[in-house]
Amino acid sequence: MKIIPVVTLGASVGGTETADRVADILLLFSQAEGALGGSEISRSLGLSKAVVHRILQSLNSRGLLQSAPDSPGYVLGSVVIGMGNKAWNQLDIRAVAGPILRRLRDTTNETTTLSVVSSHERVYLDQYESTQEFKMVVELGVRYPLHSGASSRAILAHLSDVYVREALKQLAVLHSDFSEADYLATLASVRRNGYAMSLNERETGAAAVAAPFFDKAGIVLGCISVCGPAFRFQTETAERQAHHVAEAARTITSLLAR
C-alpha cells in the first residue's frame, strides 16, 4: 500500500472550509465543458484568487488536475480517472441496470447492453441476449473508442470538449473525407433527442440505438443500448426502439440519483 503525505494548504484555508472548497472546485471541473483557469473558478465560486491558486497547485501535484494541452487552464487528471474506475468496482452498476436491461430485452426482443466510461474509452459491462435466432452479441470487457457507434456517441455527446476534440482528431486520421461540422451536428442531435443511432457503422449488418444515463450531479456515467441485425431496424422500428431505450436510461438515472 502506498501512503501519500497530506500537505496543508495554509492557515488561511483550513479545516472543514478547506474541504468544502476543494470539493466545490473538483465538482466544477467535473461539470465543465473544457479547461478552467484560476480567474474563472474564482468568479464562479466567489473565492479569492490566492486561495484558488493554492488549491489548484495542490490538486495538480497529486494528479487530480493536469495542465490543459491547448489552454493555460487545467482539466481533470489521470488520478481522477483511476478513482472513477475504482468507483465502478465499488458500485455494481450491473445490479442497478440488470432488471431494466432484462425488461428492455423482453420489450424489444433484441439484445440489450450496458456500457460505462473508462478513461477516454467505453467498456461493455453487461448484456442480455435476444432470444431470436439472428441476433447481436457483444464481447464484455473490451474497450472501444468514444468516437464511433451509437453507444459511444451517446456518451461522447455529454462529455467535455476535451473528449470531443480528441474524437475529432482520431476521426480525421481514420477518414479522409471526415466532416467535423457534420459530426458536431450529430452530437448536438444526440443531446437534443436523448439517444444515438448507428446502422452498418462499426460492423456491417449491425444496428443499434443507445441512450445515456447520469449520476445525481448530471455527469454521464455510461449508456444502454438495443442492438440487432440491421434489417430489423427500419425507420419506424428504430424510432420505437429509441423510445424504449431512452425511457429505460432515464429510469437508471433516477435509480442512481437516490
Query: What's the arrangement of strands in the largest beta sheet?
Result: 5-4-3-8-7-6
Number of strands: 8
Cα end-to-end separation = 33 Å
Task: List the uncertain runs.
Answer: 1-14
Individual helix count: 9
Mean pLDDT: 85
Structural category is alpha+beta
Strand content: 15-25%
Instruction: Name the helix and strand elements from N-terminus to C-terminus, one letter apiece.
Output: HHHEEHHEEEHHHEEEH
Helix content: 40-55%
Principal-axis shape: globular
List keywords for this structure.
two-stranded antiparallel ribbon, alpha+beta, six-stranded antiparallel beta sheet, 258 residues, single chain, 9 helices
What features would you describe in this structure?
The protein has 258 residues and is of the alpha+beta class. The chain is built from 9 helices and 8 strands. The chain has helices at residues 15-31, 38-45, 49-61, 78-90, 93-108, 150-156, 161-174, 180-193, 235-256, and strands at residues 65-67, 74-76, 111-118, 121-128, 143-145, 196-199, 206-214, 220-229. A 6-stranded antiparallel β-sheet has the order 5-4-3-8-7-6, with helices on both faces. A two-stranded antiparallel sheet has the order 1-2. The longest helix has 22 residues, at 235-256. It starts with 14 loop residues before the first helix and ends with a helix. 28% of the residues are buried.
Write a brief structural summary.
The chain has nine helices and eight strands. With 258 residues, it is α+β, with helices and mostly antiparallel strands.
